[in-house]
């Protein structure tokens, strides 16, 4: 289950870095924060792929997202 969280959070960080990078480039600034987000998110994503016992296939990612969302929902219900 920990690898599911790493996978989902890593992917989310990488996706959220895109608007930040576009904003930085449009204002002629260096995208330092976006680069950091991609490095951290990518590291989390790769760690999840390496640490998961069976590995992840592309088809497993939506199921991992749903498991993480269910765990978050259960956390806030109690």
From TrEMBL:
<protein>
    <recommendedName>
        <fullName>50S ribosomal protein L35</fullName>
    </recommendedName>
</protein>
<feature type="transmembrane region" description="Helical">
    <location>
        <begin position="34"/>
        <end position="51"/>
    </location>
</feature>
<keyword id="KW-0472">Membrane</keyword>
<keyword id="KW-0812">Transmembrane</keyword>
<keyword id="KW-1133">Transmembrane helix</keyword>
